[in-house]
Design brief:
about 230 residues; alpha+beta; Cyclophilin; three-stranded antiparallel β-sheet
Length: about 230
Amino acid sequence: MLKRLATVAACLSVLVLSACGNEGDGADSASDPSSETSSEPTAAGETITCDYPEDGQEPAREVEAPDAEAPAEGTVTATMTTNFGDIGLTLDAATTPCTVNSFVSLAEQGFYDDTPCPRIGDKDGFGILQCGDPTGTGSGGAGYSFADELSGDETYPAGTLAMANAGPDTNGSQFFLVFRDSQLPPSYTVFGTIDEAGLEVIDAIAAEGNDNSNPAGGGAPNKDVTIEEVTVG
């Protein structure tokens, strides 16, 4: 979620996508993006060693933490099937191996199946669909966290797939799909892209409108959005 988090029932914020399940109050404090990756993984050939410690929160669904050894090259394809249509994703394992490893693990364990996307923002500079919390409140997660994979030069044009967080190194299960060029701080790990057909699907979701219930912008979609399943490969 984004900077200046408001702890609304979902603990989602305005120009900041924050997943409050990873920190008690969901606060997302501003800091130098270049210093936000606190635990550097160690490379081992074509794999990398990642750390997925428990975050102290009850998982929204029981899942195992990912394997520590993550592939660190190439891309991975995935399809997010929703009640509005399919959204094709390409995940960047070469640049963000620990993030992709987590997303793939959760998808393969069915963590994202039959889950809502509780927030959409549709305005200039802030066009995102946020998903990844089975509780639909914005406060649920997988029970573990992991470090940011940031360069400090991140931008968020339409077609970007990025992690939501509650501050530095608090990534979990929640993510957001950018369907309008968005002006966000470089604080959210970009781990993939969305295909053109997928952007059309999200445009159709946005066209239904939202209830503007989040004081920071956007709100719950007027028509429920459900991830039916996420398939990898």
